[in-house]
Structure formats: C-alpha cells, structure tokens
Amino acid sequence: MTSMNIRTMRPEEIAIAVDWAAAEGWNPGHADAACFATVDGQGFLIGEIDGAPAATISCVNYDDNFAFLGFYIVRADLRGRGHGLAIWNAAIAHAGGRVIGLDGVVAQQANYARSGFAFAYPNIRYGGTATAPGAANAGIVALADVPFAAIAADDATLFPAPRAAFLRAWIDAPGHVGRALMRDGRLAAWGVIRPCRTGRKIGPLVADDRTAAEAVLAALLAEAGGGEVFVDVPAVNARLSRWRGTLGLRRCSRPRGCIPGRLRRCGSSGCSG
Length: 273
Description:
CATH architecture of the domain at 130-227: 3-Layer(aba) Sandwich
CATH superfamily of the domain at 130-227: Gcn5-related N-acetyltransferase (GNAT)
Largest sheet: 7 strands, mixed
Order of helices and strands: EHHEEEHEHEEEHHEEEHEHEE
Distance between the termini: 39 Å
Number of strands: 14
Number of helices: 8
Helix content: 25-40%
Radius of gyration: 19 Å
Strand order of the largest sheet: 1-2-3-4-5-14-6
Strand content: 25-35%
CATH topology of the domain at 130-227: Aminopeptidase
CATH class of the domain at 130-227: Alpha Beta
C-alpha cells in the first residue's frame, strides 16, 4: 500500500472536505466547516499521497468529555486500500478518551460498531418546497436580538458539551438567518436556516413545545423565499414527524442524501446519552 501522510488541515484546505462531502450527496452548508473549525482548529485532518489529497476527516473536541466526528471521506479511486482506517484511527486518537458522536450512513453502521460505537437513533431527512404554516407569531424576533447567554443556556440542555464559539459563528455566518419565539420575556423556541449546496437547511430547531416549534419554523420558512428546504428530524421526535406533511415536505429516499443515524462511542468514563 502506498504510504499516506496524515496531518492537520490548513484553514484553506477545509474547503476540500466540504467539496468532497457535496460530491457524496451530503449537501453541506456553505459555512458549515468554518463554524466547526472555531471549536477545534486541530480537529480537521487530511491524508496525502504524493502531495495530493487522498482522505479527509474531522473530529472536533468540544471539551474534555465530548467530540464529534464528520467529513470521513476517502477519494473514490483510493478506497479499499486501508487509507480510510488510517485516517480514522488518527481522528479517534485526537479525541482521546472522550465520548464521540457521529452521523452515519446505514451502510457503514457495522463498521462503526466494530470501533465501539452504539446506535442511538435514526434521523429522517425531509425536503421539498415548503409552505409556511399559518400567520406570523407576534412573539417572533431575530435570534441576534436574544441575549446570547439565553441561547447558550437553552442549547446546553440538549447538546452534551458547551459550544459558545460554535453557536456564535453559526448564528453570525453569512447567509444564516435565526429566529426566536419569546414568551413572557423568556426564550421559548429558536432556530436557524442556512444556505446549502442545494436549497437551505433548518437546524438547530429547539422548542419547549410543538406550538413554539411551529411558530419558529414558520418564520424560518418565510425567510427561505422559495426553493427547496430540508430538515433532519430525529425519529424519536414523533411529533415533528407527524406534521411535516402539512409543510409540503417529503421524506428523502436517497440513502446518500439522508443522515439516518446518530451513534456514540463509549469513552473511558462510559457512554453519555
């Protein structure tokens, strides 16, 4: 096997991983990689053979306990030669003893299991030319007008690690639009819609209840201005899955275009939920 050199990506090389992800049908957002790089600049790795890119991966360490893995791609003409395993092992080593999360395609779940990952839940991608449900809610405001501390605190109830740097970058990234619902002076729901290679994606979308979620979703869809919109819904959130049909969204059937699973790798201190 031809030797592959693995190193940390330079900032301008992150575009390689994004372009390869787009070619795989993953439809990344234009600013996705740059936002994740604000968390852990050492977490993006590239493998090179004879000076040319051969493989990419990211494993972003959020804190001492949690990391998230993505952009795991080997160049199509070099697959089946062990390069993927080599760069995978480098990423896992970067995470150390942290619990690792990842979104994985169904075809690779057995491979992930062999590396100590356990299936957590499926994600279902819905897409289409959506129609905003109902009239605008009077409590909707721009997410930028909400105190950042309130957003970070709400996010911390769902995400397993603090990620203030990422949230700031995500909210402020070019083309990203955030909306929030305030009730009695407190944050009840918030979300972001962003431009992608194809259409726009909504995420995150965090809400206290279905009514609040619908209000923010309607505001985000109004910002889309037509065109395709996609949203990934955890299958465990049956309430969102039931009313997506009223928005004009359909379930995506292409496996490469959907993110069907979230997995966790057990760290030295055990798994977290």
